[in-house]
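Q: How would the structure tokens look for this protein?
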Amino acid sequence: MDKLIITSALTGAITVPSQSEHLPFRTEDIIGDAIKCAEAGAASIHIHARNPENGAPSSDPEIVYQIAKGIKANTDAVVCITTGGGMGMTPQDRLRGAALCKPELASFNLGSMNFSMHPVAKRFNKLGWNSDWEKDYVEGTKNFIFSNTFGSMEIFAETMKEHNIRPEFEAYDVGHLHNLHFLVKQGIIEGPFWIQFVLGVLGGITAEPRSLMMMIDTADRLFGAENYKWSVIGVGYPMEFHMASMGVIMGGHVRVGLEDNIFIRRRELATNPGLVEKVVRIANEMEREIATPAEAREILNLKGLDNVDF
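A: Here is the predicted structure in token form.
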């Protein structure tokens, strides 16, 4: 097995500050969490921009640049910049941060889907919201289609190729792997691939063992096991740790973070470094070694920190 690459997804665009006091959204707090996660064992840091005043998702490339620059100044962790964005952003909006920074990795979402967290609103309509924007944002996901058309995927592919950015393919369901296969047949994408199996989003495939096995079996059949590396994300608690344990056991890799899950154990809010530390403990118990950033770069054949623009 390769050494285990742990990715920390610090904020995302779907978790809102009312859900956890530990969610970083000020630029300096995101950088601070990234440094602590790298020290805890994360080789890769997945970043989104947030409005530093109220925590709302932002597509401002200058904020992305400041976050990436701050991380690089303090750690050699791989920086992966999202192209997922948030509700209402165009493909061009979603690419601005990656196009400016030219990171080693950027996320590449493989298909359109319902992407919802609207059940969360029931709880906070009773408890109260931290900011005015949150209620409408969370309730609005009930009618949100996360758009990743073949046209927009071509734009993502062209932009990443132009800036020598390795795509981190995000597959939320089995059909998304077939979409990647189509892009390969069209000559738009070339292997080998780095694929994140994103399991447990409302609107995508469930976060349970049989779902992960189905995703792996499909990817093996479409691409050949030797032609891709995979990591798994379990959205929510305790699915994050169930999927992480399977990733450790099966030779895949693991992503954790407050983007995906806000609990370290039942009813106990997590911090980003705490989530990384828990996965490190799981891996240590199973005697799976943790990859350093340098080892992650070698496993994924990345271009290196000297070739980014931040």
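The chain has eleven helices and 14 strands.

Residues 24 and 246 are 28 Å apart (CA to CA).

Upvote if useful.
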